[in-house]
Structures are given as C-alpha cells and as structure tokens.
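Friendly challenge for the regulars: who can give me the structure tokens for this chain first? No prize, just bragging rights.
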Amino acid sequence: MHRRLFPRALAVLALVATAAAAGTTTATAEAPTPAQTRLNATIDAVLADSRLSGAQAGVVVVDTTTGRTLYDRNGTRRLIPASNTKLLTSAAAMELLGPGHRFTTEVSADGPRRAGMLRGDLYLRGGGDPTILAADYDRLAQQIAATGVRVVAGDLVADDTRYDSDRLGPDWTWDDEPYYYAAQVSALTVAPDTDYDAGTVIVHAAPGSRAGAPPKVTMTPENSWLRIDNRAETVADGETSISFEREHGGNTVVVTGRIAVGQAAESDWVTVWEPTGYAADVFRSALRRHGVRVLGRTVLGSATPDTAEPLARHDSMPLADLMVPLLKLSNNGHAEVLTKELGRQLSGSGTWAAGLSAISGYVGDAGVDTGTLRQRDGSGLSRRNLVPPAQFVTLLSAVRAEPWFDTWYAALPVAGNPDRFVGGTLRSRMGGTAAANNVHAKTGSLTGVSALSGYVTDADGRLLAFSIVLNNYLTSSVKGLEDQIALALASYTEKETATVRRTVPAAPESPRVPEGRECSWVKPALC
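First reply, four minutes later:
Bragging rights claimed.
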C-alpha cells in the first residue's frame, strides 16, 4: 500500500480545469450555432414534460475538448445527487489510494505455540475488504491448519479497529437499515456472493415437501450469527409471496408468507446487525472444518497486539478491479469503505469525516468548487448531499487527464449493453439507439430523485461530459427523460445541412423502480 498526500503534482489538472472554465466563459459569450440552438430546444422540450411539473431540474453539457458549454439549465443549483455522489468518491479513491490498492485481512497469534496448541489468542484483523467471501475465510483457516495449530487455548479476537465503530452513514433513514443497500460498514465483514454486498446474508425459502409443511429456509453463507424465525407456510397452489424481515437491533430474520409446492425457492439479501461478529462466526466455523478448535470466546473489537505473529493473510482484488462492482452495480458499501479507507490512509483516522475531507481535497484540486456543494457520505444514500450539476461536469472534464482515467471510464455503466458487468445499471436503457454502447454514465435514484452523469460521444466524434439531476418529482420514474436527453447528445452534430430532425425519438421507458430503490437495488435482475 502507498500513500498520496494532497500537496502533489496537479499542475496538469489545474491547467485543464482553467482551460475548461475559460472555454465555458467564451462559449457563453459566443452566439450559439444552429445545431446548438436545436439541441437546446430539444432538451428544453424534454424538461417541459409534465412529469417534471413542480420539480427541479439541472442539466449541463460540455464539450470536453474545447470546454464549450453546449447546454446549461440550473447548472449552479444545488440538488440531491443520489448515487452520482460515487463519482466524487471513486475518482478520489483512484487518485489517492491508487489503482493497485488492496485490502488485507490477516490472522495472527499472540502466544507461544507448542505441540499443535496456541497458548494465547488468535486475532482476525480486518483491513476493510468489502469483497471478502466465506471461501476466503475458509482459505485463511486452511492456512492456519497448515501451520500445525490444532487448538487455540485463548480467544478468537475479531479486530475491526482499522475503522471507527460508526456502522451506519450519517443521515441514513432508519427504514433503509434492513436492506442490503444500507448494510452496516465495518473493517471486518463478509460478502455472500460476487456482487460483493458486504455485511449481508442471502436467505432462501424453498417449499416444504407437502402443503402445510414449513418452507425449508437456508442461508448463504451458512452461519449461526443470524437466527431464522420461520412463520411461512407451504401451500398446494397459488401465488408465492414470501417476505424476509430482520428485526431492528438484532439478528433474527422473520420469514412470513406462502410458497406453493413445486415452486422455485425465493431469496432475498438481508443485512446483519454487527458485521464484525458475522465475519468472526464464519471464520470460526471454517477453523472447525479444518480441524482447529478455539477453546475461548469470540471477542469483538479489540486491536491486534504489535507482538502478534502473522500466520495467514488474504489480499483483495486491486482497486482498479473493485471499480467494476462499485460503479456498474452502484454498490453503496464499497463507496463507504473507500471513504473510511481514504481517511485512514491520509490522516490515520478511519472515519467518515476524515474520508470526506480527503475526497473534498482531491476534487477541489481537480477544479471542483467545493464551496458550492455538500457531501455527507460516500455513496449518495444521504439526502443531505447537495451537488450542482456543473460541478459534476467539471470533475468529469478534469479526470480525463488522469493516468487511471481509462480504467475508471470503463467501469461506468454502459447504456444498452446486456452484459450485467458491462451495462450495469444502464443495461436495459437506451438499447437500439445511438446512445447504446456509447453512453458511459453513473445512475442515481432515491424516491423523488434521479440522476445520470457521465460521457457520450456525439455524432461528430466529440466526447461530451454531461450531468442530469432531477429532484422533487412525484411520478414513479423520470429515467425515460434522462434517456431522451442522452440520445439527443449522442445524435448531436454540427454537420447537418438541409434535413434536420428537430425532435428526438422517445427512448424506451425504463422499468419501474420500487420507491426509494436505486435501479441496481432491484435484485437479482438489474433494471
């Protein structure tokens, strides 16, 4: 791991930001071209849609090569950006942590070892890895067994002290807490599958052998940290309706509803209360499977002594690879871990406050006017985040000069690409249009909030940076309006002569998103 402090060589970025600002000023003073006038009329018509009646809309479009502003509606207005906040967090992480940054989980022994017995404690130290799986803990246990340890006379100590003990982000609403997009953040955790939703368990309910029998409930990964209260029933026929609810403040999951004989199992992702204990439980079970018995208790939250001897370790994927699930699937937990890791690396404090200060320092150096925005978390789940669309466009323009830009750009969702880890949250949007496999952009959704910010190559081959942030609408979705604007940008050309299309065909309406949920939060399929 390496550290990068803010006083670094950002002269190139400063020049880019200055040029962009100068270009914008010049463009504002220049008379718009006929093509730009048509583009403005098209976007104005989209924003006049009745679904935005009484709402707030901010849209900014800039040619990244010249800095010329092609469109600006309320670009300086502070709006709730939802998951577009991840643009700030991920860019800062790529620069300040570096694309090669990895999270390390270590197991250490504190005490003498003799004849297969460790006469002391075994420490499981978390390094913040949000992608660590039960299989990785199993390999750690295998490494411990390979050292010859068969009995631990002391305790299993789960060390999560790399970050603070604040588990939930500032301003997160209480009713989001059981759902996987608001999982608790810990330096020591478990992800149940390769979507890497750390701090969650997948609960499955399959029908019983006959009507009247309780469904068979299992978990991935298997663990004893969660307790199942199965109140559901198997019925002979009819519609399946199963619910999984974890009670606040505890780890009991209540399963209710009905499932018909012969139906496929129903599954859902459920957050755990206290991920550190969950990780310790999974690891302790893995030790047992590999013939290592721990005679003592499981102790949470104590630091590993400096004198402890390392016995096993697991390194995460590099940050460059982590950008894919973070941005493609809009993984909130990854953004929050990166925020705390930034704080830990740059100031020695694994807290939201320290991490947000680091993010602000980087984006400010990149030309963003941090005095015009407020960032309260890393993911965008907080409704107190406020960012003007123009500042997103400033960042999007500036980061093109970064050596890691191509990796970051490729990690953004790609419109209309059906591959889940390419199209991501845009995989079912704008398909079959000029925007398909063209628009690379970050989505964002909360109830009454929708955003889309990123890049599109226009019909003349220019790379445009854009930000669309819509707030306070009452309809179920306005994503179709975002798509129409993106399509207008993809179709934009200065070369039109005699025949001019003055309107943009309506993009296919995106599937309806349940209230309060981001597109990627609707599992297992992405909308």
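The radius of gyration is 25 Å. Residues 1-28, 498-502, 510-522 have pLDDT under 50 and may be disordered. Your move, everyone else.
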